[in-house]
Amino acid sequence: MQKKILVLNDLHVGSAYALLPPDFMDTEGNIHVQNVGQKFLWDIFTKTLVRLQPQKIDTIVINGDLLDGAPGKAPNKSQDSTLHRVEDQIEAAVKVLEEIKNRLPKAEWYFVRGTPNHEFPADVAHVASRLLGKTYPIYNSLPLRTGKAVVNFSHEVSFTSALTKAAPLEREMIYQWLSEGMNGHKVIHCEVRAHCHYFAYVGRRDRLAIVCPCWQLQTPYMTRNSPKKNIPDLGCIVLSVDDSYVDYGMCPVSFTEYLYLPPETDFIDIANGGQDGEDIPVVTL
What we know:
Structural class: alpha/beta
Shape: globular
Distance between the termini: 44 Å
Oligomer: single chain
Number of domains: 1
Order of helices and strands: EEEHEHEHEEEHEEEEE
CATH class: Alpha Beta
Radius of gyration: 20 Å
CATH superfamily: Metallo-dependent phosphatases
Number of helices: 4
Helix content: 10-25%
Mean pLDDT: 90
Strand order of the largest sheet: 6-5-4-1-12-13
Low-confidence stretches: 279-285
Strand content: 15-25%
C-alpha cells in the first residue's frame, strides 16, 4: 500500500515574519498589506503548491504552530505581530490553508498541536472547522498507519543551534526503540518533528527521523545572540510511504523536500554613499 503525505508546520500566521494572505482584512475592516518578507514567503508558498498540485497527495498534516499566538505570550510576546488578535490570526490561517485545499481537494487533513507559547488547541480546531466544515480533533501525537507502515507526527523536539543537528533525532529513534523493548509499544518506522525551523534527518536500515522546515523568516528572537546562528530552512516535505518495504526489514518511508533559502539584506555601500550616489534604505524583513 502506497500513500503520499504532505507535511507543513511552523506557519506562525499572525507574525510579521510569516505568511499573510494578500490584502488581508481584519475584524475591524483594516487592510494589512504584505511587507517585503511576507511577499517573498507568499510567492514561494504558492509556487510550492503549483509544484505539488500534479501529485496525488493523499494526506495533509499540519504539524503544529499554525498560529503565532496572542500578545504577551513568550518567547517574543508578539512584539513582531502583524495580527495581534487571535480571531484575525484564525481568519488569516483559514485563508492560507484554503490555498492548499483548493489545489489538493481530495486529501485528508490532520492537525497536531504546537507549543503553548504560540497556540491553543481550541484555536487550531476553530481553523480546522472553518476550513473543512466539520469538527476535527487536535492531536498531541499523531500515529498514522498505512498497511504495515507507521509514521508518527509530533511538534516539539529538542533544539540545537550547534552543528550536530542530527543528535536530537538520533535520540528520538532511541526513545522509540526503548519504548518497544521496555514497554511493549508498537513499532513506529518514521518519527516526524517540527519546532526547530531547520531541516535535518537521520536514518537507519528500518527507521527514519526527520525535522521539517518552516514558513517563518528569521525573527529578532532568533537573532538575539547571533544573526548567523539560527538561519531557518523554508519549505515543506512530502513523505512517500510504501509498506511493502517492511517485509524486507527496510524503512517504508522516503521523502522529497521542497526547500528555499531565506533572503538576505543587501549590503550598504558606504564607500559610494549608497547605490548610484544615493542612500540605500535599510530593509528589515
